[in-house]
Amino acid sequence: SLDSLCSTQPDGSLRLSWAPLLPQEMADQLLHKMAAQGTLNDRTVGIFRSCEQLRLRRACVRSSPLSAEAFRLALCPHRLQELDASGVPGGLTGAHILSGLASNPECRASLQRLTLSRLQLGWTSLEVKEEQVGFSSLQGLRTLNLANTDLTDPFLEDICTLPQLEVLDISSTPVTELSALLGCRLTLRSLTAHGLRQLDMSPARVISILSQLHALRHLDLSDDRFVSGDEAVRLLLEGGSGILPALVSLDVSGRKKVTEGAVTAFVEGRRGLLFLGLLATGAGSCDVLSGKNNLKVTGEANEKQICESLRRYRERECFTREALVHLYQLTNDMYNQTRPDILKLVLGGMQNYSESLHVQLVASACVFNLTNQDMAVGMPHPLLSAVVHQVLEAMRSFPSHQQLQKNCLLVLCSDTILQDVPFDRFEAAKLVMNWLSGHVDRTLQRMAVAVISILVAKLSTEQTTQLGADIFIMKQLLGIVQQKAMAGVVDSTLKFALSALWNLTDETPTASRHFIQCQGLELYEEVLKTYSSESSIQQKVLGLLNNIAEVEELQADMMQEDLLEHVVTLLQGPQVEVGISYFAGGILAHLTSRQDAWTLDQGLRQTILEQLVQCILGYRHMCSLTSLSILLRCFKCIVYNVWFYFIPGVQYCQMLQVEGAVELLKTLSSDLDTHSNVRGMAESILGMVERHQTTSNPLRTQTEKGHHGRS
Fold first, then answer.
1. pLDDT tens-digit map of 230-242
2. In Å, what is the CA distance from 408 to each residue of 171, 366, 387, 398, 444?
3. Which positions, given as ranges, span the membrane (predicted)?
4. pTM for this structure?
5. What whole-number distance in Å separates Cα of residue 219 and Cα of residue 205?
6. What is the Cα 224 distance to its own chain's centre?
7. Cβ atoms 223, 230 nearer than 8 A
8. CA 481 – CA 363 distance, rounded (Å)
């Protein structure tokens, strides 16, 4: 509702027309929500220029496309304590941010936490010697994250002069020297130096500098290159408690040749250790780790270590992928265990790296293992809904990757997900159809067609119409039917394809027209003959033909003598099931309802009319087997057409009386369980009979299109 609450300014930005003085926390949450939903941009961020009503303290514009000017006008006037501008596209650089923040004297003192990771810092426009644009101008800074930026040695020196700096992340930067860290040796409590690949220092010199950081409690020297070893890491692990004795957290994940002996020595020398990162080191199985209940470990040795890895490494794609690979192996053996806690971690990885094929591939496999068979039943539906959304995103992002598409299809092929979980079924149906067009694997084809069949049945009429407008979908499904019919097989793939086509043509003239254009009538006539003893197949075929017959402009295409004569044989008989008779009657009722549109021999039409009346009257013999109201409710289409079309003269009113149908209609009319539409039809027929009894004039029939719905 943002547009309705705002006015547009000359520069195109929005301003709130009116707003109360919101609590500061609410303003922060509003900004964060807009950024998370992808609605924050130069236009919408303008509402935060109203500093009196929307007071920001903890601002998050993560990954939002903002220009330097929009950022300066909307955010810099606030007395910010925290700012997360990581990954911001649109030309906003670190230099712009520093310049804007430093222009506000209050912000220079108040800002404590600044995150600029994955941002181009743009140092060419930044001069350290100009106090107002240097990091050192933000004297209140305690936490600074510059991971994956173009940070260089001179600016690291500037940063390390900050008097209160406690937390610093310089991961994956081109820094070559760490000597500058000595400038904050008395305050720095946490140093993250992951993947410093351009570091040009001897291992001994690195350890010498680190050992002088007397306040350091948390150290990250991990590397996602999975390097074969590092002398500095070895010196640290084996150096005894004299090196960084107060350390409570160390991460050396990815260092391939970390030995169990070195890990044992390090852990035993630090009783206060709370975290140890050992993912992809091969050292996670150390015996010393099993007895430390308060020690959290990332690794691959067990479920606890793998889950901790997924929690800790949300910002590191390579580690996320590594943890998911081991989780997949673990979940292969998780039979009948509902684990929403683990599924939530997998979902987080998929969301954080939606553009990474490697992450999506292994994560989708994990999702299948965690939701397979009955394991999805106990999962929270909001969680499953978010998972399905991400699965569809993966299908859309990587349409040509066969294994990923297969994984996603396997996830969707779940009764719980398809029937109970809310998600965009229309989009899912399109994606699965697109996948189906390029694959012939029988097992996967069966699943894909099953998914489509269920999805189409749950779409709204508008969505079904939109889906049916694509003739490509009709061709694909008819192709599957033809493939199965030529082989003469009866399997679930054929049945699902027939159901999908039936649903796709329900109340959708466009899809029905495409069915005709794709030679569907000829194919379905053959299917009726080929599967004459398969009632489940015949009912689905007749159900679709009934949908076609409802469309007046397509009735001429169905005027095929052989087809109609075959349908007449399915009206009644000892081997004809009720459902088959119902749809056969519906087809014939629609095609004979408009005498002026009938193009075949009139004798055939008269024969069909007589057969229909006999069929309807024959239903009364079933009353001993099932409730009359329920039985006739199923045949509302035929009753409806009797009402309008099959009583063209006095003789039919007399027939209704002679055959006892009047009493059946009276029972139907008085039964409270009878559907209102059917009751109305029965009462109308009774009214015709009554008028016949009181006048010698023949009944005047009406002309109106009936609608029977779908079984």
1. 899 999 999 888 8
2. 34, 11, 10, 11, 11
3. none
4. 0.81
5. 16
6. 30
7. yes
8. 34
The CA angle 422-351-451, to the nearest 5 degrees, is: 40
Please list the residues that pair with 596 across neighbouring strands.
none
Task: For residue 55, give the 3-state DSSP assignment.
Answer: coil
Within 149-213, strands assigned E span 167-169, 190-192
| Residue whose structure tokens are 């890491």 | 233
Residues 6+ apart with CB under 8 A from 597: 552, 555, 556
What are the tokens at 492? 């679930």
With DSSP H G I counted as helix, E B as strand and the rest as coil, what are the percentages for the chain, rounded to 5?
Answer: 55, 5, 40
> In 478-523, where do the E strands start and end?
none
User: Which are the contacts of 483, defined by CB distance < 8 A and separation ≥ 6?
Assistant: none
The DSSP bridge partners found for residue 115 are 84, 145
Provide the pLDDT for residue 132: 44
Looking at the DSSP bridge assignments, the partners of residue 83 are: 59, 114
> What confidence score (pLDDT) does residue 659 get?
66
Helix segments in 244-302, DSSP class H: 260-268, 287-290
- Grouping H, G, I as helix, E, B as strand and the rest as coil, residue 471 is helix
634/706 Cα distance (integer angstroms): 15
Sequence-distant (≥ 6) Cβ neighbours of residue 99 within 8 angstroms: 126, 132, 133
Alpha carbons within 13 angstroms on the beta-carbon side of residue 310 total 27
Pairwise pLDDT comparison (698 vs 438), residue with the higher score: 438
Q: Give the residues across from 219 on adjacent strands.
A: 191, 250
- Torsion-angle region of residue 507: left (phi > 0), alpha (psi -120 to 50) or beta? left
pLDDT in tens, 576-586: 888 899 899 99
44-65 average pLDDT score: 96
Residue type at position 414: S
Is the confidence at residue 668, as pLDDT, over 60? yes
Please say whether the beta carbons of 277 and 298 come within 8 A.
Answer: yes
Token readout for 501 is 């086509």
Strand partners, 191: 168, 219
Q: Are 114 and 144 in contact (CB under 8 A)?
A: yes
Please give the average per-residue pLDDT across 42-60, as a whole number. Answer: 95
DSSP string for residues in 520-581: HHHHHHHHHHHTTT-HHHHHHHHHHHHHHHH-GGGGGGG--HHHHHHHHTTSSSTT--HHHH
Residue 574 has a CB neighbour count (10 Å cut-off) of 4
The CA-atom distances, in angstroms, between 386 and each of 131, 323, 346, 350, 383 are 47, 21, 11, 10, 5
SS3 for 43? coil
Structure tokens given for 483: 């493939």
Q: Are strands 14-16 and 6-8 parallel, antiparallel or unpaired?
A: antiparallel
- 588's CB contacts (< 8 A; 6+ apart) are 564, 567, 568, 571, 608, 611, 612
Structure tokens given for 174: 């081109």
Cα(322)–Cα(378) distance, integer angstroms: 28
Angstrom distance (rounded) from CA 447 to CA 455: 12
Which of 552, 586, 550 minimizes the C-alpha distance to 567? 586
Residue with tokens 């999908």: 500
The type of residue at 349 is G
DSSP class of residue 228 equals S
